[in-house]
TrEMBL record:
Record field: transmembrane: none
Record InterPro entries: AAA_GajA/Old/RecF-like, Bact_Antivir_Def_Nuclease, P-loop_NTPase
Gene3D superfamilies (UniProt xref): P-loop containing nucleotide triphosphate hydrolases (3.40.50.300)
Protein's recorded name: AAA ATPase-like protein
Domain Endonuclease GajA/Old nuclease/RecF-like AAA: start-end pairs: 2-350
Pfam families documented for this protein: AAA_15
Length: 396
């Protein structure tokens, strides 16, 4: 698969492979993280939009009908009893249209009736919900559209199959979003390239598990202030009680590296080592980094039809553990077939990925983020080392 971007944040143009393990290296503020967040946003928006679509449509319809009733109470109260509890077809909407417009209420209620037409058509409703979900993902993950797209510019994102078939297309301006797909259908159900995406941006999320569980997940996201969706999504997955069948040998390797185990207790994750129990707040951040992978492996979140996106894992890892972390990622891809997108500014991470993938001939692609471009470095990984190593050579 390939992901292409044009005029998205700091990235002016990029065309990258997602065929195995993909690494993007570069300095801070070079656009590396933007690529991963955009891929995450596309996959999540598409999957969320289809989830419980029928009940979502019903909720939208009933909400609009309640709005119509409220306006009628203020204008023609006698008509309120003639408004149905729900409308489920275009024919029902037309009947409501004729009732209201026949009473001269088209100007006041035309907007609500027109939107009702959208939520009785499953295909149109799916595309609109997905567009809205993607817009929400942009707000959650980037802050605003104009943080991604400059005024008077157009951004483009495409996810392509290996034969060049366009699976997803997203067009953005500083004020609007359009989301299209050409994903094939079998028996009326879309067959998507990824069932899910997981983005790990910081192990500090392990300290926030109780917060997200109690104030976000348990209260069904009814908060009056914004929160990082990426973290909430990860916390949900960390708290899954499902038991995986594959990847458990890799989980054992992680336990050996951190010399302990993680376990769930109600809404909290605990670290167990040599018979002692530690809360996450008192646990080393490096152990949290490996602990996230451990829990995701044990509950089956990491799988062949998911993509794992990891942003700068080296930040909290000693060079020795950076090598071990990469070795585990290579094992995950080799054993489970999980696609992995990795960003870094660590030469240890780059070299470790070269070394471990060469041992087993796994597919790996290297890119350097520089000057708004993502340059393929498969045939010249040295240019990545030149950039990442330059600060050290300068002071030696």
């Amino acid at each position: 698969m390939r992901l292409t971007l044009k005029n998205i944040g700091l990235i002016k143009s990029a065309d990258i492979n997602l065929r195995g393990i993909t690494l993007i290296a570069g300095e801070n503020d070079s656009g590396k993280s933007t690529v991963g967040k955009m891929l995450f946003s596309i996959v999540k928006a598409d999957n969320i939009a289809e989830h419980k679509l029928e009940s979502y449509m019903e909720g939208k319809r009933k909400g609009l009908l309640e709005k119509i009733k409220t306006k009628l109470v203020q204008t023609v109260p006698s008509l309120v009893k003639e408004i149905p509890e729900d409308v489920k077809s275009k024919k029902h909407v037309e009947k409501l249209y004729n009732l209201l417009f026949g009473k001269g209420l088209g100007k006041e209620l035309g907007k609500e009736v027109k939107e009702l037409e959208l939520w009785v058509n499953e295909e149109k409703a799916f595309f609109e919900r997905r567009r809205r979900e993607f817009y929400s993902q942009v707000l959650y993950n980037f802050g605003a559209l104009d943080a991604l797209i400059s005024e008077n510019e157009k951004g483009e994102v495409y996810l392509l199959a290996e034969d060049g078939t366009e699976l997803y297309k997203v067009l953005l301006t500083s004020e609007s979003v359009s989301f299209y797909d050409s994903v094939p259908e079998v028996n009326g159900k879309k067959v998507r390239p990824f069932k899910d995406a997981t983005l790990i941006c910081t192990p500090v999320v392990m300290d926030l598990v109780e917060f997200f569980y109690r104030l976000v997940i348990k209260k069904k996201d009814r908060l009056k202030y914004p929160y990082p969706f990426i973290m909430r999504d990860l916390v949900r997955k960390l708290l899954r009680e499902k038991k995986a069948e594959d990847g458990l040998e890799i989980a054992k390797e992680i336990k050996s590296i951190i010399r302990g185990n993680l376990k769930l207790e109600k809404d909290e994750i605990l670290f167990e080592k040599e018979g002692r129990i530690f809360r996450m707040l008192g646990t080393a951040t490096g152990i949290k980094s490996f602990g996230i992978l451990l829990l995701l492996l044990e509950n089956g979140t990491v799988s062949y039809n998911s993509i794992l996106i990891i942003d700068e894992p080296e930040v909290h890892l000693h060079p020795k553990w950076q090598l071990e972390y990469v070795r585990i990622l290579v094992e995950i891809h080799k054993t489970l077939g999980t696609r992995i997108l990795l960003t870094t500014h660590s030469p240890y991470i780059v070299q470790a990925l070269r070394y471990y993938t060469e041992q087993i001939s796994e597919k790996v692609d290297f890119y350097l983020a520089e000057d708004g471009q993502l340059k393929c470095a498969n045939d010249n990984v040295g240019m990545i080392f030149d950039l990442l190593g330059e600060p050290l050579w300068r002071v030696i």
